[in-house]
Specification:
The chain is α+β, with helices and mostly antiparallel strands and 635 residues long. The protein is built from 18 helices and ten strands. Among the domains are: 197 residues, no CATH class; 104 residues, no CATH class; 94 residues, no CATH class.
């Protein structure tokens, strides 16, 4: 009871403080008053502190098995280990909203505190927008879906966590992905603040680009960890199924990828101002739209929450944000004209613009495939959009992006001089060598087309990384090449595992074997582990190695069964075994041989490392001096 009262009071106080900070900061921006702006920022900081207190109260209730709270009862039981108890914080709808608010207020406070060189008005308006967004989430948590609701009767135990979530991936994937979604609000706030303040200089661009990279990096980690979790837990041999919720998580990532590249054109050439603002705004609107689809129950997915009362609230927020953003862009449209025209399509800025068009084309294609079943269902003829649609549509676009990755960094700014194509000699030679080797090796189809392009992109990236002593002094360029190399490594893993995957399902008696892609697995023995969570497993031998795929059964959760996949990983391939059915006299297993999957995880790590290297320690330009209203000293 005390925990519920403390958490509820903290949320209510946070709502009041966020409202105070939003109103006062907006007024400070209008008046250019540095003192009022400082007080408004403190309102946001205090709201963040209140959310931290409420989050601590919920964690205390989860770890202490306080089943008088409905949220604790619905998402935990006494059998959970303490790490899984702690991760139940974001395992349900109310807790995930509180986690979203926690990230928004804490990272928003850090961003505002670090923006001291951005000027009074821009900083004040950004604070107002962040506080207003925090106020929206806090209002939901106070009045609509509170995680501190009490039960009339306290049960002896809880209902437990979904079996799929009882995995180590629960500790790493949801917090990164939710933090990514939430943090897209921060560059959006600074973009809108720049429109309100009439500021489009280098200080705004550097600040917003850095914040967008933080959100982009969190989302990259969240998407990659989600792929890893699906690969290790769901037992279907893959890592990306074009699930609707996977798609809505990918959309803001694609839009932000476009922005972090086209922002360089504005920094260097004063072009694409309106386009860049539109990308920042679009990424956040896509994040809110995806959240609406997930929370409203409109999409059917293993990731979605049950139908709840907050879907209309998010739809209303989305409508307000769309109207506000479009109104601001229209109001400032004359000020957003480019300082100089595009001189030549054959230039670095031309390559960035083409890359942006391809990425927005991907956004449109994925969004259309995600919404088509929902829209067609409204007219009584629901269409099913499967992975084949996304592969056919996105494959050529991704291939074109990889071609740009090979050629774009070699183009100069403004216009390419005569003979510029000679700089393509190294990537072209790599592509031809790869094509010849693949053709001689008997490779046909997608691999014969994709791997030469990847070889060219890899050569361009590696040649950009050559002068190591030069790296730290020009770490932004060096980090970009390292990130590009990470993209190439990820693409090699995706193409290799897609083109060369082998699969076979077999029912084996003891002593019998199944052979897949040159690997022979022999059924040795059947085993069982009794307990509150019982397991059936089989022992398979593959040469000198032993694999033990299993199935776990949860009697307390309606007898749900979860696969325990056995994976033997090497840098070149994974042997991936799923147990479908087992008894002492037989075992039915599905064996996948997935080439180059480990390259996906390694490439994602290289990608994030490149982003961090390129942006750590670089200073944000100072804003132009702004005359501020300051109280006169006492006589």
């Amino acid at each position: 009871m005390i925990t519920a009262s403390l958490g509820g009071a903290a949320l209510l106080a946070g709502l009041a403080l966020a409202g105070f900070g939003a109103g006062l900061s907006a007024w400070a921006g209008v008046r250019r008053d540095a003192v009022l702006a400082r007080v408004g920022r403190r309102g946001l900081y205090a709201a963040a502190a209140a959310v931290v207190l409420a989050s601590g109260a919920l964690e205390w209730a989860l770890l202490g098995h306080q089943f008088e709270l409905a949220y604790v009862t619905e998402h935990t039981d006494r059998s959970l280990s303490w790490p899984l108890l702690a991760s139940s914080f974001y395992g349900g709808q109310e807790g995930s909203l509180l986690y979203w608010t926690l990230v928004l207020t804490v990272l928003g406070s850090v961003a505002v505190a670090a923006a001291g060189r951005s000027g009074v008005r821009l900083r004040a308006y950004a604070t107002a927008i962040l506080a207003a967004l925090a106020g929206f989430f806090l209002a939901l948590l106070v009045f609509v879906v509170s995680p501190f609701d009490l039960l009339e009767i306290t049960p002896a135990d809880g209902l437990g966590l979904n079996p799929i979530l009882r995995d180590g991936g629960m500790l790493i994937h949801p917090p990164f992905l939710l933090a990514g979604f939430s943090s897209f609000a921060i560059p959006f706030a600074f973009a809108m603040a720049s429109l309100l303040a009439g500021r489009y200089d280098a200080a705004w661009m550097a600040q917003t680009r850095r914040l967008a990279l933080v959100a982009w990096s969190l989302q990259t980690a969240g998407l990659t960890l989600g792929m890893w979790w699906a690969y290790h837990v769901l037992g279907w041999g893959g890592y990306w199924g074009w699930d609707p919720v996977e798609n809505v998580a990918l959309l803001p990532w694609l839009a932000t990828t476009a922005y972090v590249h086209s922002a360089q054109v504005q920094e260097r050439r004063g072009q694409l101002k309106a386009w860049n603002l539109g990308l920042v705004v679009g990424a956040f609107l896509l994040a809110i739209f995806g959240t609406f689809l997930v929370r409203s129950g409109a999409l059917v997915s293993v990731h979605t929450f049950a139908v709840s009362d907050i879907g209309p609230w998010f739809f209303g927020l989305l409508a307000v944000l769309v109207a506000f953003s479009l109104g601001m862009l229209a109001w400032r449209s004359r000020s957003l004209r480019p300082e100089r025209p595009l001189e030549s399509p054959a230039s670095r800025e031309g390559a960035f613009l083409l890359q942006n068009f391809l990425l927005i084309g991907l956004v449109a294609a994925v969004l259309w495939g995600t919404l088509l079943p929902l829209m067609s269902g409204l007219f009584g003829a629901q269409r099913v959009v499967g992975p084949s649609y996304y592969e056919r549509v996105s494959g050529p676009l991704f291939l074109a992006l990889l071609l740009l990755l090979a050629a774009g960094p070699l183009l100069p700014w403004r216009r390419a001089p005569r003979g510029w194509w000679r700089s393509l000699a190294w990537p072209a030679a790599a592509a031809l060598l790869a094509l010849a080797a693949l053709a001689l090796g008997g490779v046909r189809g997608v691999g014969l087309l994709a791997f030469p392009v990847l070889a060219a992109a890899a050569v361009t990236s590696v040649r950009g990384l050559r002068p190591l002593p030069w790296a730290w002094r020009h770490r932004r360029v060096y980090g970009a090449y390292l990130a590009h190399l990470g993209v190439v490594v990820v693409a090699v893993g995706i193409v290799g595992s897609h083109v060369w995957q082998s699969q076979r399902t077999a029912t084996l008696a003891p002593g019998q074997a199944v052979t897949v892609a040159g690997h022979t697995l022999t059924f040795d023995a059947f085993g069982a582990r009794p307990g509150s969570v019982s397991e059936q497993f089989v022992t398979l031998t593959m040469g000198d190695e032993t694999l033990q795929p299993a199935r776990a059964f949860y009697p307390g959760l309606g007898g749900q069964a979860v696969s325990r996949v056995a994976i033997r990983s090497t840098p070149l391939e994974d042997v991936y075994v799923v147990l479908n059915d087992a008894a002492p006299d037989h075992a039915t297993v599905t064996v996948f041989v997935n080439p180059l999957v480990t390259w996906i995880w390694a490439g994602a790590a290289i990608l994030v490392l490149g982003i961090l290297l390129g942006n750590l320690g670089s200073a944000v330009p100072a804003a132009a001096p702004v005359r501020a209203r300051v109280a006169a000293p006492a006589t």
